[in-house]
Amino acid sequence: MDRISGLPDEILVKIMSLAPTKAAVSTSILSKRWEFLWMWLTKLEFGDELYSESEFKSLQCFLDRNLPLHRAPVIESFRLELSGLYFKPEDIRMWVVVVVSRYIRELEIYCPEKQHILPSSLYTCKSLVILKLDGGIILDVPPMVCLSSLRTLELKGVRVFSDASLQRLLSNCPVLEDLVVNLYHHDNTLKLTIIFPSLHRLSLYIGYTCDVDEFVIDTPSLEYFKLEDRNYDSHPCLIENMPKLTVAYVDVRSTDLQSLIGSITSVKYLTISSKAMFGDGFIFNHLEHLTLRVWDDYPWNVLVQVLKDSPNLRELICLSEMNDHHQNFGLFLWDQPSTVPECMLSSLQKFTWTEYLGRPEDRDIAVYILKNACRLRTATIDSDTRLFTKLEMITELTRSSRASTTCELIFY
Description:
Layout lengths: L8 H8 L4 H6 L16 E5 L5 H14 L10 E5 L7 H13 L4 E10 L14 E10 L12 E5 L2 E2 L2 H8 L7 E8 L4 E6 L5 E9 L2 E7 L5 E6 L7 E3 L7 E6 L5 H6 L5 E5 L15 E7 L5 H8 L6 E7 L20 H5 L3 E7 L3 H13 L5 E6 L6 H9 L9 E4 L1
Parallel strand pairs: 1-2, 2-3, 3-4, 4-5, 4-6, 5-7, 7-9, 8-10, 9-11, 10-12, 11-13, 13-14, 14-15, 15-16, 16-17, 17-18, 18-19
């Protein structure tokens, strides 16, 4: 007898749980003893590959036959990724019904087609802790919802059946801590209301064609906030104060930043991608790490404003991006501030410019920072050599004066 066969079933199941589900199932052909051992697995994962029609039918028959007979009393996680077009919504609905009946804790479904596949029992699953839905799933939430244990919810690309349907789901997750909502397309105008005293992380994506009438956010415990709003139409935005917020990522196309910026002034790490000014009176006293995404038509007064409003900034990163055909090359010139921002004199230690374009205003900004940042330790320039030679860039910046005698200038 080999050593593995001498191990108890519980140990064998633990060993199988370390392998992909498909590999674990294949052990059923080894012997009579191994035939049903995989049915005690508490973590099941199917899909994650491109199936032919015959392969998917085999998977479908396998799940139809074996999932209802699964022996584990509790299924910790069930992940289903379907990349083909051969499934029937009623089959997936039945599989979800089965795992919900086994006190599922983590459920993840990717479905490429526009389908109603979620049973009503899912929305009253008290054991569910993590729910991730991706693809063309239609979110049609029934009147009765109670997800009392749900802590992580991801809705990526799902189609919302109605405004009320989405709000019904969001308002019945009392202990939710992590929320991701990606709205790529929607047939009707949405009003998005996110009110969670317990929420720690929030990521919102609003696509170009998604019509959001307004959104309201009230999350006093939030620590991480990411907003990508690709819709150029301005919509009312009511965001309450986020006193515990530490990290924020803001990428917006509309021009109304007042409410948003006023709610994220407590951040320590900030990434901002916007050409809009956000007004005076906002001070980022805790901000230490700032990343600015800039374009070739970027209004550099946004940089000036953020530097003035961040007295304790330690690290500045500029990420350059090119517009198509460079039509606005040099449109916005650098307007050197009349007074040096406080952070340049007392706290800025690290400066990085990625995809440095080498325009006259870029050179002026880089030289200004080197000339005035008294505590600067490193300045890293990662150049884009499509517009000028690297040797010219190195010569220009190396010859510029530096306020910090210990500053190391690094080129890539």
